[in-house]
């Protein structure tokens, strides 16, 4: 099924390292070749989901059902704890969980980017970045499924009328730009150091409680640094605020744009330096 996608020049199988210029060109060629093979990444992502839910009646819709149940429970509890209305709180926690689920899954699964592709990398000359887009697309599919629950809540509560579509799209683009370089960087580091996936999973669980996913930033009167220096706060704000009609934090777009630029430069530099060795790490 995937054979027709795999007719790719062996761009990273050469033995010795070349000059810096040639290594940068080879890494860049890998990147652009992977863009041309997004259909392969999409096919691999689809196969991953089918394999995971083979034999299941509802398939990935179970994730949507679970998220909807969790959001409902948190709304019933926290509207009493925080003394806020359901109309105000439900959109906040729903979009927050949608965004958090996407970002956290990309980071956790990104740690296994190349480890999970060991067999294919050893047997076929496929651009390595194909597997970065594979993880990203797989989670975008889950994101789209979960968005159904958000759309239902938006129609039910009427907050779809206040959605700022342009800023929602800008926010989503910045989130994608940032999680994609994180997937690449974590995938490389994890291929070399196999404890990284467990560390990432533990850190994500910790950061969940330090990020306003289900609690409100207004509840913090002191220790504002919990938000100011928390990159996940800006990732959530980029999508949540325009979707629920709230004003964006004025720092969100500059912070995420700068993080995307610095992150991609760093990830690409690491990829250039390690590209020929990743297969040997595996």
How would you characterize the overall build of this protein?
The chain is an all-alpha fold and 282 residues long. The protein has one domain. Helix content is 71%, strand content 0%. It contains twelve helices and no strands. The protein has helices at residues 20-36, 38-52, 61-81, 86-110, 118-123, 129-157, 165-192, 196-210, 225-228, 231-244, 252-274, 278-281. The protein is globular, with a radius of gyration of 20 Å.
Write the layout of secondary structure elements.
Blueprint: H1 20-36, H2 38-52, H3 61-81, H4 86-110, H5 118-123, H6 129-157, H7 165-192, H8 196-210, H9 225-228, H10 231-244, H11 252-274, H12 278-281
Helix pairs in contact: 1-11, 2-6, 3-4, 3-6, 4-6, 4-7, 4-8, 4-10, 6-7, 7-10, 7-11, 10-11
Considering the chains and any ligands shown, give keywords for the structure.
282 residues, mainly alpha
What's the Cα radius of gyration? 20 Å
Number of helices: 12
What order do the SSEs take from the amino end to the carboxyl end, as H and E?
Answer: HHHHHHHHHHHH
Which structural class matches the secondary elements? mainly alpha
Number of domains: 1
Largest sheet: none
- Give the end-to-end Cα distance, rounded to a whole number of Å: 25 Å
* Helix share, percent: over 70%
Shape: globular
- Average predicted local confidence, pLDDT: 87
Number of strands: 0
Q: Tell me the fraction of residues in β-strands, as a range.
A: under 5%
Could you list the spans in which at least 5 consecutive residues all have pLDDT below 50?
7-14
